[in-house]
Amino acid sequence: QVQLVESGGGLVQAGGSLRLSCTVSGRTFSSDTMGWFRQAPGKERDFVAAITWASASAYYTYYADSVKGRFTISRDNAKNMVSLQMNSLKPEDTAVYYCAGRVGYFSGSYHSQQGQVSRQDQYDYWGQGTQVTVSL
Q1: Which of 42, 75, 101, 132 is geometrically suited to a Cys-Cys bond with 82, CB 3.0 to 4.6 A?
Q2: What is the DSSP letter of 32?
Q3: pLDDT one-digit tens code per residue, 88-97
């Protein structure tokens, strides 16, 4: 059984930073696509970032426009972990952040995968979520 455990959420002032981590157990995820989504109060869950297998030594990364240049997704396959470094946080980043994984990787070029990695229905397993609150 695949389990994801997120950590690193909390309360931070605007302009500050947080680093979220997601540890995966129950499978070896080196070729899995991993993503982060978030759900703000009263809103739908939205795509934040994803990291997908591109070649034996490289991964593609994707970001929502709202977080480009501020957030960075990364993975450590030796630790079965994916992380989200969040800098220059804004109050509108306040949400529950969810880690998600897709068994295997998407095929095709970087651009051809772009429309798929942001779709929640493309992911097979999910974490419980971690709260991030950004105050003024």
Answers
A1: 75
A2: S
A3: 999 999 999 9
